[in-house]
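MOLECULE: protein
FOLLOWS: sequence and fold
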Amino acid sequence: MKPSRPAPSGSRLVYSTATGRMCPGCVRPVAECVCGRVAKVAAAARPVRVGRATQGRAGKGVSVVTGLSLPPDELETLAKALKQRCGSGGTVRDGTIEIQGEHRDTIVAELGKRGIAAKRSGG
């Protein structure tokens, strides 16, 4: 892989084939961001949704939290807190939190207390 070089001043580079997604603040690859702006932009761009899914679970429903742009260790910590609050099991899978059972209202309320704007999705 070629070393990345900074974009010209005033450039709005978003993606580079050599490095992937680029930070809009420091114009470095997302993995090497030093300004922290990537997390702010990602959080603003993706809404946090709390939905319900049953696919592949033999009809058993789970509450699924999507759109959280947190590092994996913080995602695990949040999942643990949500599982304790709901009194249920769950897991973190592919950047989403799955809590066993129908707990959408409880999860939305708990995320609101933690300063994360979340919306209930689905019927």
About this structure: Residues 54 and 64 are 10 Å apart (CA to CA). The beta strands are 15-16, 20-21, 48-53, 62-66, 90-93, 96-100, 118-120. The radius of gyration is 18 Å.
